[in-house]
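Meet our chain:
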Amino acid sequence: MEKVKINTEYIKLDQFLKYADIVQSGAEAKYFITENEIKVNGEIVSQRGKKLRSGDKVDINGKLYIIIN
């Protein structure tokens, strides 16, 4: 499980994908979210504005990330 440290209260899913170097741009993030199964705390999400907070677990095609402050 990879830890991703944020310095704010939350980070939106599309911003997280860029911050974690999974995608390079917002447009790429939008496409990536529609084409891949992304789970936040076990639930499939497709909203790129989904707010991720400290303690949230993100599963992207089997690779796990945890958000920490």
